[in-house]
Sequence to fold (94 residues):
Amino acid sequence: MQPIAETAHVKTSDQLKGEAKATYNKLEKLSGPDFDRAYTSDMVKDHQKVAADYQKEQGQVKDPQLKTYVDNTLPVVQSHLRMAEEIKSNTASR
Fold:
């Protein structure tokens, strides 16, 4: 997405902010099974949000380059969501 943002003159950041920073701070304090459970739970939640955002944008985006990106990336995000859910399920029993 970075090349698309640059082409559109959209400024991006590589610094964690807001909820992402709070999640990092929370996870940083955990270890072992507690970390595994919290991490997998957050990964499922984040992938659900991203998948929903991409699905919403898929029907609304007008820019052809961005539309191609969304169309190609949504199935990857959905696949990662399924994997995260499976890992979470396996981790929950620990």
